[in-house]
Design brief:
Layout lengths: L1 H23 L5 H26 L6 H54 L32 H12 L1 H14 L9 H20 L6 H12 L4 H10 L8 H15 L1
């Protein structure tokens, strides 16, 4: 277990370095932020693998496992907050680049028009391409062509990352695999995915309410195995509408019994 604890400490150190970069760096650029975002996603994958390795230890007692789970949960929370903050900074930089680009575009048109002699009939001149007007990391935008409309479309696509991120978290919940039998690892995976994506949505500004909880609960109830569903129904008042938190707590209490 010492090797796993060392790996956990290394991941913590990396998270701290990324937090320091986000909080203290005065030279954020889309390229640097994109690299840090990929690093955050890499740390999430390592934590997921680390968690499985801890669960595979057969002689670990429940109290030790609870401490480890709480520590890993804290690391996941920090990574989720970092991901949201980095994406927000990225979107802000892209928005500023968009405004600057439009301003440069208008100036270029104005300069072109000032050089035209209106008394001379000139052939129709197509609008110039303005890739050269882009500066810094905005040049890395991928567009169908170099026209103003195409690049603005690319900028808008980049600004819609929050929507794509939100859809990713919702789909992660909807696509949780259905359980066919009682399994400690499968139950842990289900609760991890559910809790992680609910927290991520909250960090993005989407608060839970009674309706959302009821919908989520009914989605997840259809994904657990028959025996677990039966035990949950027996643990609650059949006349009362069950709550999502009650269900999650039920699964958390059941996990030690599956080991």
């Amino acid at each position: 277990m010492d090797k796993l604890n060392n790996s956990k400490r290394a991941i913590k150190g990396t998270i701290t370095k990324i937090e320091t970069f986000v909080e203290e760096s005065g030279n954020h650029t889309p390229t640097k932020l994109d690299i840090k975002l990929k690093r955050v996603q890499e740390m999430n994958r390592k934590i997921y693998e680390l968690k499985d390795q801890y669960y595979d230890i057969k002689d670990i007692n429940e109290s030790e496992l609870q401490v480890i789970e709480a520590d890993i949960q804290s690391m996941e929370d920090r990574l989720e907050e970092l991901e949201v903050r980095i994406r927000d900074i990225l979107n802000s930089l892209i928005a500023k680049s968009s405004v600057s680009f439009v301003h440069n575009h208008e100036n270029a048109i104005s300069q072109t028009n000032s050089k035209l002699k209106l008394e001379i009939k000139l052939p129709e001149i197509p609008l110039p391409l303005f890739r050269a007007s882009l500066q810094g990391d905005t040049k890395l935008l991928e567009a169908v062509d170099d026209s103003f409309e195409s690049i603005i479309t690319a900028l808008k696509t980049r600004l819609e990352n929050k929507r794509l991120l939100t859809e990713t978290h919702i789909n992660a919940i909807l696509e949780i695999e259905k359980l066919t039998s009682e399994s400690a690892r499968d139950i842990r995976t289900m609760t991890d995915i559910l809790s992680k994506n609910i927290r991520a949505l909250k960090l993005s500004g989407f608060e839970r309410n009674n309706l959302s909880d009821l919908i989520l609960l009914n989605i997840i109830l259809k994904k657990i195995d028959r025996e677990t569903r039966k035990q949950f129904e027996q643990s609650i008042d059949s006349k009362q509408i069950p709550e999502l938190d009650t269900f999650i707590m039920f699964l958390e209490k059941k996990k030690p019994n599956y080991r």
